[in-house]
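Dear colleague,

As promised, here are the two records you asked about, laid out in our usual form so they can be pasted straight into your sheet.

NAME FIELD: protein one
SEQUENCE, THEN STRUCTURE:
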Amino acid sequence: MYFMSHLVEKKNIIEKIWAEHVVAKRDGHPAVFAIDLVLLHEVTSAQAFEMLDKRGWAVFDAGRVVATLDHSIPTRKNRHEIFELAAKNQVEVLRKNALKHGINIYDYDSGAQGIVHVSGPELGLTQPGMTIICGDSHTSTHGAFGAMAFGVGTSEVGHVLASGCLLQDEPRTLKVEFRGKLKEGVFAKDVILYLISKLGVGGASGYIIEYCGELIPQLSMESRMTICNMSIECGARGGLISPDEITFCYLKGRAFAPMDSRWDEALDYWSSFRSDSGCDYDEEVVVDVSDLNPVVTWGTNPSQSVEIDKPVPELSELPDAEGEAAKRAMKYTGVSSGQLLSSLKVDWAFLGSCTNGRIEDFRVAASILKGKKIHPDVTFYVVPGSEMVMRQAKDEGLVEIFENAGASFRMPGCSLCLAMNDDRVPEGSRCISTSNRNFVGRQGVGSITHLASPATVAASAISGRISSAAEVV
């Protein structure tokens, strides 16, 4: 005879969200999977609405859909004037479709316009146990709240708009356990770059990652979003963290968070989406971050990185399958095996993006820049992730610190993360960046990108070469 508790199957959070959202399932076929929230921006939504129009379909539930402007818009002060015709059309089409289908859009000067993965959590739209999709790979950001969130293609956006559901195979689960406490000057960006360097760009393909371990309770929601944001860079479908008191404190009082008696009901429901003690995963990885130093990329994908005090690896130290790609990357970025990245001068610096465009990132960078000047050869773009971040930065005096240091404080948007807008790093220039991808030409044709934390970016902008915060404070 067994006690009842022995008969209850222990589940991790991924399995719990999956079970809660499967509408129908037949053997040998993907499940019909319910989606709670659709996030739209101007670049990948037009084709989805076009599909609806051609087939005569309506939006299933406009209340589950939210839109904003981020990818292709300018970040100059006169951003209402869009010079690029393609970008102007994308913005106008999104406005038109939102109006036609009754979708809430956070347009310029709404107070909440911004990068979709920054403004969504700020509004309290992202909540534990949810399923969320967007036509953008870094939708995994929302997993920081204990949501299953992932990027999809434009046709899939159309399917979800029309039906509220998506065909999905049950994901495999990967547990990443972070042990230890971060040293001063080391941040979430360093942690996720280090993990990606260990797993490789395809190391988590087919999995959704749950991040856990003693490090996680030490991290703010902003830091957790940074980690979940870059899950896609090691091939994962998404990444999430079981909700806790830090999650609930962040959400309380947000515009779309439950209020009054509904708050207590929500807490009970959200708390049910925690992994059970002793539950199973398909794979498990343990990473000790106790001795980690700031991490910077040397190559052309996020896995090609090294701690700032260590030399770029010898090709012989890399797996055979990575050797040729590493050679090409070194040729493009102009770095060599054995070289210290601190020897590299930088021409540009960028603080922003859905990875590090939040108020916490701005506070860290401002604390390093206060009372200092950026190097005269460096152009530094500081771009808030949302109008809310911009407002907070002004109220806290951070904008004054950035501008006194010589940086250009811009309007909210994706900006130099992907050069799909007016902001581009010139050909041949080297940029230290808080964004999430360092692909060839990502920040502009012929540009070179080194990914790093906000602290490392601020320090490098001051010294004019890749530097840790410890070198300039």
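NAME FIELD: protein two
SEQUENCE, THEN STRUCTURE:
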Amino acid sequence: METAVTFARLVMLTLVPYVLAGQGTMLAGRAGVFNVAQEGIMLVGASVGFLGAYLSGGNLLQGMLLAMAVGGLFGLALAYFTTTLKMDQFVTGLALFFIGMALSTLLYRLAIGVTLTPPLIPTLRELPLPGLSRIPLLGVVLFRQNALVYGAVLLSLALYLFLYSSGSGMALRAVGENPMAADSLGVNVNLTRYLTTVTGAMLMGLAGAYLPMVYTATFTEGMVRGRGWLSIALTFFGGWSPHLIFLGALFFAAVEVLAFRVQVTGVGIPYQLILMLPYLATMAVMMPTFRRLQVPAFLGKNYDRERRALL
């Protein structure tokens, strides 16, 4: 039983980057902007988040805010190039991915340089919820976590209520389904795309900052390790719906924790195969559900208000 509780607790701890990046992808996609720069934005978020915390003497909140700000700048660039300049969304996203990947290493080298001993920051501490954390088994798994675990759960709930129970959420979904109809009803399509793309990228930056602040206490090149790409698959798997994305994040996190524990226990499985487990699990899940996937009708298409047409 203790092993199962530890496993479940680690899954909750591991799902945060998937939830944040997945919900960020969903937000932009619901307005028709397909962001494929997650991996790069998470990397630069990890770098800036770490540097912000380290250079401020261990202030993690400052690191997280800086990571979100940098992520927001990437989102703003994506929105400007695709919504204002009408450039191809996929090509622009890939360019931002490469910029983010290079910038993450450059910023770290400029600020820290090359050291024999990596600089460290404090990690996020547990924040037990009074009363609830004492519930047997469940309290340890759900209510003895760091603040971002609670934040990821609340974010998913809030996005679900926003999208399906509010007029603004309905307008946002309309932009991604039929921007011409939404425009004719008075919805500002371009503003909606800007807001959701920037907000989504801010969540991706925070997802990156979570990695050094919880896993390693330092920044290393490529530390996102494909989680950004997996968040795209997660968003498709979750049907671009917050609650299903959260459930998908639980699955992805469980596979990652399982791969880590298999690696630690050393059961004789090649290391390379263990690293492939999350991607193999993604393919295994996506294949049977591919035909039933539902995406926003105008995902990845630009809208020209002057022409009242999609590009």
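A couple of things worth noting about protein two: Residues 2-30 form the longest helix (29 residues). The two ends are 56 Å apart (CA to CA).

Best,
R.
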